[in-house]
């Protein structure tokens, strides 16, 4: 067996194993992929295999059209969504999909997560966007492929860049996150779940709660992401 | 002692031990059984024994009338409910009963769990049905026996098959789940608890939330259960 | 040092250690005692000592007036409440006090926990009573002593016996539970916390939810506690 | 390397490691510092370092102006807030900042946590204060420095002393706690999170719930903090 993809297989394995460790998945409800831009492929979790049976060698290597390049297992059923995003977003290195409890509840409610505090603002300056449910035509078509376009279209409509906003809810479904590396994408998945939980509690404690004011949003974003960034607790 | 039932005793033991591992039971508030169709019996957890004291040999063997065939312990007090379901539903291999927190809260509220998202739709295309509380006459009669009929009657009224819908809430009481194997029934019990939790949160985040649209329900069901099923994360 | 009380010290130690294991206490927010009726004393947790530093020998022996009989530590500050209950309720063997999250929230809301389901009915057929806050005079007096009378008075007003109802909320404060043994009292503390959590969720899922009907309450109580009891999952 | 600050480095390390153990932080969302009054410096967590990679030697030594005195890492980005508080509050020995879930939700809702029960009253007799969000000018200025003044100003406006009230929410942001020692400050952070959770549940169970009456507040405070204090469970 080729060792050409050993690096991304090991990274994908490690990143996938973080999902149950962080409490983000029940059974097999999630997957992580890692891209190799030079080779034009990514490594992704095989479909339906319990986390405790995974190994680096069980990761499947797939190209940007979603075709399997190497591996005996079937790639995750969300593979085509990953493929579309890697093809169009040239600066991401990893993608995560989970059905984590609180983020999924917001997706089911088809609501953006309002920016209520600095925990949120330290990571993105917009509400977490929730893509509108797909049209019936897209659903009947190449569903997972279309999910990739659903995600891209939502960002475009709101004039947001995938480089600034690394997380999204797919309406009626569940969250996707991404980042320059798979580790960053996993980090974003855990942050999103916590932000979703805090926003739910905030609205319970104070219905009609005002959002964070613009000056605070800007300050928290810039101290972490601005040209003079200095942030890190 | 006969080794004739060793297989189902071991399966029943393993399946019962999954309940505390998955956080679905407090103390002894749950039980799993496994059927042997050839022998016309099932193995079930003994009554009132803490999980950590269980062993394969402590499982009780019972026939479809609820009579003990082998075993020194008293079978679970829910045994007659299991017996009725095995007798009438010829294609199930295992049954689970728990008092898991969120599913039980929905049962206490006497409400079906609305289908709000794809996590739900990946497992069943209907709302999770909640059987109406028993009539006073049934309660005064052979209670656990009648619970079996209460479950079957609820599915019948809604024109649902136990082969498609493998989970149910018994109003005022708690959930029952089943499946072709005991492992699948346990899997369903954990999925039900998570679906119940997400639906509770969804309604808190958006009261009067619309349910999943028909086209999405159909797509998610078919990609997992349809003739061309390909799903598995 | 006398070994006369070794038995109840060990039982008290074991029972106290179950509180953090069951997730019922933060830091030192709870205590268990075990009585020796023959000797007219009980063993109780010392005051302010973290659970991981406890040992059987650190338990304090106290009489029914709340006076220390043996032990170097100061007995729990709730000792007088325990003493009053042991003195007046001759058939209890153990008492538990915690500030477990959900039960305490109901106590703070000064509401009885309504009987919404069979999980509750399997343990008591009444709403879990919440004693009204103390009068200012009682508060200024011998506070912990009066808490014992507050508990007894509440049961009396509602015409309930401590033999049937083994748990109570003290308004604005937190729960107390008891039983024929300390193990049973600890079991009751964990059941109360779960019943409190389920009732909170039930009301969130269905405001104005009806309570369990009388026939079901009766059935579930009798199958566990009645003359022909057969219950135990 | 100097051993002069070894004591506070070890204390700071131990106290920081308690935050993940108590479930108060996700990733690096928190920090603890310990002061050495004689030397006029404090030890604080380095910025952005995961808890499992920390060691006593990685703690950074900083003076009351926020300038690094010893250490190779960058001190926590909240360092200036700690520095301001140590400079002005001469009797505190440690400070904790977290983004713990429930306390942060109250901060995001910009509400004080009402005193609903004795769990709260055992620790402070006032509502937990929530400082109003900063003015835009302060935000644009020396932000973390100003956060220290925001905290002090809030106590002053309410006529509260940092010696009586050892916890506060910073509006839109998250909690800060302090105490005579770092261990006490960590204890306060865990107590605040539990009090925040209970108050949230209390309001869900009973909207418009009355607060604890004055006589009970006074009793619980005095038995723990008064001249004749005897409390400790």
TrEMBL record, chains A, B, C, D:
Keywords of the record: Metal-binding, Zinc
A Pfam match: Aldolase_II
Catalytic activity, EC: 5.1.3.4
PANTHER family membership: FUCULOSE PHOSPHATE ALDOLASE, L-RIBULOSE-5-PHOSPHATE 4-EPIMERASE SGBE
Family membership: Belongs to the aldolase class II family. AraD/FucA subfamily.
Known catalytic reactions: L-ribulose 5-phosphate = D-xylulose 5-phosphate
Official protein name in the record: L-ribulose-5-phosphate 4-epimerase
Main enzyme class: isomerase
UniProt keyword Zinc present: yes
Origin species: Chitinophaga filiformis
SUPFAM superfamilies membership: AraD/HMP-PK domain-like (SSF53639)
Domain Class II aldolase/adducin N-terminal: start-end pairs: 10-200
InterPro entries associated with the record: Aldolase_class_II_sugar_metab, Aldolase_II/adducin_N, Aldolase_II/adducin_N_sf
Cofactors required: Zn(2+)
């Amino acid at each position: 067996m080729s060792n050409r993809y050993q690096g991304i297989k090991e990274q994908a394995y490690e990143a996938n194993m973080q999902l149950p460790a962080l409490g983000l998945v029940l059974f097999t409800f999630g997957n992580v992929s890692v891209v190799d831009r030079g080779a034009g492929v990514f490594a992704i979790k095989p479909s339906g295999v319990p986390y405790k049976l995974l190994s680096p060698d069980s990761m499947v290597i797939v190209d940007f059209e979603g075709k399997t390049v190497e591996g005996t297992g079937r790639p995750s059923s969300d593979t085509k969504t990953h493929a579309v995003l890697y093809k169009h977003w040239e600066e991401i290195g990893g993608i995560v999909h989970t059905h984590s409890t609180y983020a999924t509840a917001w997706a089911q409610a088809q609501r953006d997560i309002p920016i209520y505090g600095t925990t949120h603002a330290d990571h993105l300056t917009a509400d977490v966007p929730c893509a509108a449910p797909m049209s019936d035509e897209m659903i009947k078509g190449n569903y997972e492929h279309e999910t990739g376009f659903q995600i891209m279209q939502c960002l475009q409509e709101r004039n947001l860049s995938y480089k600034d906003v690394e997380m999204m809810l797919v309406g009626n479904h569940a969250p996707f996150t991404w980042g320059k590396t798979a580790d960053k994408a996993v980090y974003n998945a855990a942050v999103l779940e916590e932000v979703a939980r805090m926003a739910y509690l905030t609205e319970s404690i104070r219905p009609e709660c005002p959002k964070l004011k613009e000056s605070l949003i800007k300050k928290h974003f810039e101290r972490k992401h601005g040209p003079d960034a200095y942030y890190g607790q």
